[in-house]
Amino acid sequence: MAAPQASGSARRRARNPANGVGSADKEQLGQWGRAWEVDWCSLIAVISLLCLAPFIVFYFVMACDQYQCSVTAPALDLYSGKTSLSEIWNRAPSFSWTAAKIYAIWVVFQVLLYICIPDVCHQVLPGYMGGVQDGARTPAGHVNRYEINGLQSWILTHTLWFANAYYFRWFSPTIIFDNWIPLLWCTNILGYAVSTFVFIKAYLFPTNSKDCKFTGNIFYDYMMGIEFNPRIGKWFDFKLFFNGRPGIIAWTLVNLSFAAKQQELYGQVTNSMILVNVLQAIYVLDFFWNEAWYLKTIDICHDHFGWYLGWGDCVWLPFLYTLQGLYLVYHPVQLSTANAVGVLLLGLVAYYIFRMTNHQKDLFRRTEGKCTIWGREPAYIQCSYSLVDGTKHRSKLMISGFWGVARHFNYTGDLLGSLSYCLACGFSHLLPYFYIIYMTILLVHRCVRDEHRCSSKYGKDWKRYTDAVPYRLVPGIF
Question: Which of 269, 299, 334 is the last residue of a domain?
């Protein structure tokens, strides 16, 4: 059963020219992408996430602050009546203007690096693709241009961080940990402000009205976004900036601050903390080294920009992707040499699978199949799809190399890497393992979402592809 739809106003129909057409017409117009209609299950899930996700972040952070990272202790205290939600809330550090100033400086600094400093790394680093790059073609047929300078921003930011830590001492390296919960309020303010702004912008002054999608359900549109690529001016792209700047650059800085706090408290940095810092830094650096490739991924190519990305990148990513480092501040773990080597090898093998799978896809795309994968010419399925204006385009789906093993084998590598971060923390508490649980749910759901889009986009050709590569993540299982 479809959820109740708002009556179609003239303004909404004007901004969404395909509004009101039948399903066959939608397919002909090439409206592949996120949902056109919202059923009751989707609506319940959306409202649940909007209501619960901020409290999930708060719960985990407060579990560490007040319960030594025990996930079950707060719930047991609440159930037994030993404490109440108001008591936990009142014990939480509140918003502070010091944290607000720190976060404002951080965001403004990243905006300046993003829009004011053209990339020079691609001119001096062999093999790196930066500078001005084209994105993927949108459903309406537009190709946006981007200034790819994330690696440069990461290098400049971390150079200043280490210069401060070892020479200038403008601020303590533990500044992020020391203001961790007040910063949570600041990130929430920005996350909701950005999400609300782009929601209103889609109605009043969209960047490209033909790439807007209105389902008629305000909750779904707010969460999943209406505009495909909301922009201000020529270069400030909300999706690329919030996906790839304040949150993910902060990821490695947050881990460094946790390591500094461990050094301050215990007089040493444990090998588990070093492993978490190194393995997650490899992942972050891989993201920035391949930022031009990222323009062709699901986040940029298919997701619209709403609360899901805006709030998620401001709050969920920096606070829950760094749980392992936070846990190790409260519970330092010194692994045996054998265990440390095992975790490191798992992380490196996972990264190899993740990187080589993506490299094969990128190589295949760049050469239009005129390349060698695992020593032979790659096989592929020839597909076609339509854009909004009805024009036909062709595409090739590779069924060789890792892409012949499973349809999302890059996610398999990602999950193995996530597991390695968690294993570095030992087995005393559940909290560090939230990451692998969450990533499994996220990537399985992403598989389903991506394949739903591809099925809508390619039609019968997608069925030929899934027949050729029957498994999604794990060969023989799923």
Answer: 334
